[in-house]
Amino acid sequence: VDRAFLRSARGALKIARTLVALITLLCFVASGARGAYTALAAMETVITVLFLLLYLLSLDARMRCLFWPLADILNSVIAALFLLVVCLFAVIVKSNKGTLAGGVFGLILLVLCIVDVVLLSKKISLDKARGRSAPAK
């Protein structure tokens, strides 16, 4: 377990994203909202938990078949786009207070996704050597 990741800004952001996604999911489920709202919140919760476990258990260093920070950025960008559409629709339609609360928490999650993209893009250096496949200098 990488305890330093938990204390880092990225770790705190992943935990915050997980909690806000879970709150969004609970709001949508409690309100009896449409399937798209609940499915998006559930997928975001599961994917964020998986990325949190990936970094927490240092599996990204062991599984070098994929450039994990780039996959994380792509996930955050796609999630932000879907959250923008779905949560704005939930806030505008506001069929009940649970849907409205879920939409507002989803928009907060959207902001956290954007912050995650910014932090990860600062970390990535595409010209940096990684793994054994990199040429020796």
Automatic annotation (TrEMBL):
The chain crosses the membrane at residues 12-31, 37-58, 70-93, 99-120. Residues 5-125 form the MARVEL domain. The lineage of its organism: Eukaryota, Metazoa, Chordata, Craniata, Vertebrata. It is a multi-pass membrane protein. GO terms for cellular component: membrane. It is found in: Membrane. Keywords: Membrane, Transmembrane, Transmembrane helix. Coiled coil: none annotated. This is CKLF factor. The keyword Transmembrane applies. InterPro entries: Marvel, MARVEL-CKLF_proteins. PROSITE patterns: MARVEL. It comes from the Eukaryota. Pfam families: MARVEL.
